[in-house]
């Protein structure tokens, strides 16, 4: 496999994390002016962030209702992931399956050695062999690009601001001389919005990069393009309950959910049409190379 490092993605990840770090340094400084008892929730959130870093994969699987499966249960799925992992020069990740009709897949884990690739039973029923390889290779490309960890950390930082928006008044104490707590709440809202926009922009770009990575792993960009169209065509025909439950995992899915609050206000993924067009262009390039 002729793997080409996407320095554009690495640069965007580094720049996004730098901006988020600078944003939250200012954020914490502002909050310290308004909340007398802010140290305790800050320490608590810091401890939670460390726990999330080490257990993000298990938390993601639990939130999706996915479970780790053995090679005896899903032998074909394990063989495919093992073969594609070898082609991508990656350790074989943990394999998980979620029993839901929503045809989707995602990768999680803090590094290459602790990665998990999860698929839904709806996906396994929807795709042919080549299409399934394309989707699995896409998730492995996320692991190889190390963007899963960056998205996990960046997403958590935005939840701190949301936490202050919802519960910050509990830690305001009796500080009557400073500005009203509502000012700190408004600052938190602003920080959350900026964080959300930064994460969304990074998420959209990383999908293009993972699509290209999948094409490098399998050598068949057309198979992934076909899989994306198949999945996209089925997303609106699955039960609405599944869509509502899984909308918050949009940034980690191969195709975003189009329902729920998050799905309505912004997309974490480029349009399927744009992704397919790029894959078709890459297919033509590979044929003429």
From TrEMBL:
Q: Which residues bind Zn(2+)?
A: 138, 142, 207
Q: Mind telling me which residue stretches traverse the membrane in this protein?
A: 12-32, 38-55, 148-169, 181-202
**Active site positions:** 139
> Where does it reside?
Cell membrane
Q: Per the UniProt entry, what is one GO biological process?
A: proteolysis
Pfam families linked: Peptidase_M48
Where on the tree of life does the source sit, at the highest rank?
Archaea
Predominantly, its location class is: membrane
Q: How does it sit in the membrane?
A: Multi-pass membrane protein
Q: What is its EC number?
A: 3.4.24.-
Q: Which residues form the Peptidase M48 domain?
A: 75-282
GO (cellular component) term, any one: plasma membrane
What note does UniProt attach to the cofactor annotation?
Binds 1 zinc ion per subunit.
Record keywords, A-Z:
Cell membrane, Hydrolase, Membrane, Metal-binding, Metalloprotease, Protease, Transmembrane, Transmembrane helix, Zinc
**InterPro entries membership:** HtpX_protease, Pept_M48_protease_HtpX, Peptidase_M48
Q: What class of enzyme is it?
A: hydrolase
Cofactor(s) listed in the protein's UniProt record? Zn(2+)
Q: Which GO terms describe its molecular function?
A: metalloendopeptidase activity; zinc ion binding
Q: Which family does it belong to?
A: Belongs to the peptidase M48B family.
Which PANTHER family does the record cross-reference, listed alphabetically?
Answer: PROTEASE HTPX, PROTEASE HTPX HOMOLOG
Q: Could you tell me what this protein is called?
A: Protease HtpX homolog
Query: What high-level taxonomic lineage is stated for the organism?
Result: Archaea, Methanobacteriati, Methanobacteriota, Stenosarchaea group, Halobacteria
């Amino acid at each position: 496999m002729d793997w080409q490092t996407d320095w554009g993605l690495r640069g965007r990840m580094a720049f996004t994390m730098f901006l988020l770090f600078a944003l939250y340094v200012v954020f914490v400084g502002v909050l310290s002016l308004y909340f007398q008892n802010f140290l305790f929730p800050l320490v608590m959130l810091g401890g939670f962030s460390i726990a999330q870093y080490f257990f993000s994969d298990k938390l993601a699987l639990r939130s999706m209702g996915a479970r780790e499966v053995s090679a005896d249960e899903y032998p074909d799925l394990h063989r495919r992931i093992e073969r594609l992992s070898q082609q991508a020069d990656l350790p074989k990740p943990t394999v998980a399956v979620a029993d839901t009709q929503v045809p989707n897949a995602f990768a999680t884990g803090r590094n290459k050695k602790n990665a998990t690739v999860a698929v839904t039973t709806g996906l396994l029923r929807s795709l042919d062999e080549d299409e399934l390889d394309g989707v699995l290779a896409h998730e492995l490309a996320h692991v190889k690009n190390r963007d899963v960890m960056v998205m996990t950390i960046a997403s958590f930082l935005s939840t701190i601001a949301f936490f202050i928006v919802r519960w910050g008044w509990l830690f305001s104490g009796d500080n009557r001389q400073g500005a009203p707590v509502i000012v700190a709440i408004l600052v938190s809202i602003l920080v959350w919005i900026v964080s959300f926009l930064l994460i969304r922009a990074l998420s959209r770009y990383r999908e293009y990069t993972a699509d290209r990575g999948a094409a490098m792993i399998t050598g068949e960009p057309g198979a992934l393009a076909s899989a994306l169209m198949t999945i996209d065509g089925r997303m609106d025909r699955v039960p609405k309950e599944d869509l509502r439950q899984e909308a918050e995992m949009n940034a980690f899915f191969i195709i975003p959910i189009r329902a729920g609050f998050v799905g309505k206000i912004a997309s974490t993924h480029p349009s399927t049409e744009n992704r397919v067009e790029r894959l078709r262009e890459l297919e033509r390039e590979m044929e003429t190379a």
